Amino acid sequence: MTIPIDWRAEAARLTIRDQAFIGGQFVDSASGETFDCISPVDGAVLARVAACNAEDVDHAVRAARAAFEDGRWADQSPKARKRVLVKLAELIQQNANELALLETLDMGKPILNARNGDCRAVAECVRWYGEAIDKLYDEIAPTPKTALALITREPLGVIGAVVPWNFPLLMAAWKFAPALAAGNSVVLKPAEQSPLSALRVAELAAEAGIPPGVFNVVPGFGETAGQAIGRHMDVDALAFTGSTEVGKLFLRYSSESNMKAVSLECGGKTPNIVFADTPDLDAAARGAADGIFYNSGQVCDAASRLLVEDKIHDAFLSKVAALAKNYQPGDPLNEKTQMGAMVDQVQTKRVLDFIARGTEEGAALALGGKQVRQETGGFYIEPTIFDSVQNRMTIAREEIFGPVLSTIVFKTPEEAVRIANDSKYGLEANLWTNDLTKAHRIARALRVGTVTINSRDGGGIEVPFGGYKQSGFGRDKSLHAFHKYTQLKTTYIQIG
After folding, report:
1. Cβ atoms of residues 181 and 81 within 8 Å
2. Alpha helices for 74-211 (secondary structure H)
């Protein structure tokens, strides 16, 4: 029999790391400055975390460069790197309760989502890339017999990774796991809203055997630490997940510094297209509800635009609204809670402003729309559904990053595709139909990086993830991620 966990008691026993991790040790910021890390669960200050700036980033980059150049990690065999990363995955699993608590307290997501979802996926990601690295082969080009051309992949060097607050550790793992597996050194900047789990994992990485200087974590603000990584002349590549607005800044930082390679996974406005011939409307409704209310809608591929064929609009929307009741915000440390908090007061106000804008522009507020649980000191918003939405409206065009669903009616497949593609984003689309021919035809027409059919599950670590248009470029997950952290070298040998 499983003994229930008293998560609040566990939280009271937590040891929180609040310093930067540079060169294999925890250090204060060079300036001595800190910032308050505030829990969205109840508004309490969790820690005062080192506020890194350009000097700290330079320190971390120098440590990463020294580690790369002397080969303490890059020159280890793929099999040796595999052993260390598999050990790190095991340590992440062993410390999953602690890491999940840090995620929940720091970001506000339900504790079981953090433990059984995020932490499990982080361990899988690290193990997967560790296991993959000694199974990749280089190439020999089809040259004349008088020559031999070897095409080899080499690590880039120092990788800067800047990650968001919605899945703090998972988004970090999608960057650092393939980067480290390939032999690079990493300088990671977690979001200032959620730095705690990354600092703990840095400690676990050292315990697993990652040498000093190979994995560094510099907490701080985007305009200071983030910009410093983007502009640093000795960072070879930058991997970013976050808003389109900030992604464009990193492109500028690259052009104004050393032309470092940049990969971006930015915003989304996922269309969830439901046809009248959907084989299981109840499953589609569950997918629609989970697609927008999971993680309080703070998901880059959240299914925020519900496109419903006119024949089933009323019945289907009723199903989704009924399911939304299961996502009423609750205590994130209660295992029964399905939807937790917004990450902070700033994001809460942003979402409420979008809700007000939807009403002003003529959308019909069918459910929710209010901030709740204010007596807790935390930041919570009801599951919110708009009907009678036109795709030109602000709530249908901008990434809200909250539990806000915009319902749009269509009559024909062609109209559905037109509405779905009428967006500056192109991260993902969901499609529900019993017609296989129609599904294939529409999937090809949608300008997005991932199309799911009769499911909200876009696959695990084995499939690539990334977008079209202003959702960015480059791919996380799968073997394709190695392309971002390696470069090709041709060695041409004249033998005739």
Report:
1. yes
2. 78-94, 96-107, 111-112, 120-132, 168-181, 196-208
**Beta-carbon count within 10 A of 143 CB:** 13
pLDDT at 4: 83
Q: Is 300 a catalytic residue?
A: yes
Q: Which helix (H) or strand (E) holds 36?
A: strand 34-38
DSSP 427: S
Tokens 């968001």 locate to 164
Are both 330 and 369 inside the same structural domain? yes
The pLDDT of residue 457 is 87
The single-letter DSSP state of residue 95 is T
Query: In DSSP terms, which residues pair with 27 in a beta bridge?
Result: 20
Report the C-alpha gap between 74 and 64 in whole angstroms: 11
State yes or no: is 37 an active-site residue: no
* Structural domain range at position 370: 271-460
* CATH code assigned at 156: 3.40.605.10
Catalytic residue among 124, 265, 399, 428: 265
Beta bridge mates, 47: 37
What digits encode the pLDDT tens for the residues 234-250? 999 999 999 999 999 99
**Secondary structure (3-state) at 366:** strand
In the structure encoding, which two tokens stand for residue 113, read together?
A: 């989502």
Q: Which of 300, 382, 399, 428 is flagged as catalytic?
A: 300
Q: Which of 240, 14, 20 is nearest to 106 (CA)?
A: 14
Considering the domain architecture, whether residues 404 and 278 belong to the same structural domain is answered as yes
Residues of the chain with pLDDT under 70: 1-2
Q: Under a CB-based contact definition with an 8 Å cutoff, are residues 383 and 403 in contact?
A: yes
